[in-house]
Amino acid sequence: MPELNGLLAYPSKPEPIGTTLRSALEILKSEGTGKNLASWEENDIPGRFIVDPILTRIEEGNILVADITRLNFNVTFEVGYAIGCGKRVALVKNSSLTGSDELIRQIGIFDTLGYEEYSNSGHLAHFLRQLTDLTPLTIPETINGAAPVYVVLPRVKTDIEIRTIARIKKARLSFRSFDPEEQTRLGAGDAIENVGQSHGVVTLLLSKDRVDAVVHNFRAAFIAG
Fold first, then answer.
1. What is the overall mean pLDDT for the chain?
2. What distance lies between CA 202 and its chain's CA centroid?
3. Among 2, 27, 44, 212, which residue carries the largest CB count within 10 Å?
4. 46: pLDDT strictly greater than 60
């Protein structure tokens, strides 16, 4: 049975999410099975950018356990990063709390990856204890020579998006794109395949005043990771 070695990623609020995950981690460590698992808070080292030790932990481990009860930009980036590093990703969701169900449905990435629901620390510890398959998702190794750039667009295009596309075309770079006007949801498989086949990825972060900013920015975080 492989030993889990990695990171537990979750939002800082609401507090019950972190409390339950830390309690599950304590259960595993008391059994001697979770000694190489750590919460992101354990990697919050004073005097260093918090992202550095977290990304290093993902790179050196074999699994990322990420809570998506309430979607979080940093956690979403870390999920994408772990997949890109060839690590096993296990998504979990607290069924006792109101969450981001409608947002998850709109984005499309997380429900196509699949997730395990839990309601207490014992349930979550049992799920982690039973994780034996640490095979990561497959990432294409062949670049799409005909269109080596992947662009992720928002549904409503402003002058910024129009100019960005114009500059890519001016550089004579052929590209593939995800456009919500043509495809309402971004599936995880499609995203991973398109990123893996690309020399470069282009996406923009939208201000909170933009239509569909939240949905687009979570897609952008996953793609960028």
1. 93
2. 17
3. 27
4. no
Residue for token digits 């043509």? 182
Adjacent-strand bridge partners of 9 = 66
Give residues with Cβ within 8 angstroms of 51, minimum separation 6: 74
CA-to-CA dists, residue 55 to 4, 162, 199, angstroms: 17, 33, 22
Cβ contact 199:176 at 8 Å: no
| pLDDT range class, residue 1, cuts 50, 70, 90 | low
Query: Residue 36: helix, strand or coil by DSSP?
Result: coil
Residue 33 C-beta-side C-alpha neighbours within 13 Å: 15
pTM score above 0.70: yes
Question: Tokens at residue 35, please?
Answer: 């000694």
DSSP per-residue string spanning 168-223: HHHTT--EEEE-TTT-SS--HHHHHHHHHT-SEEEE-PPPTTSTTHHHHHHHHHHH
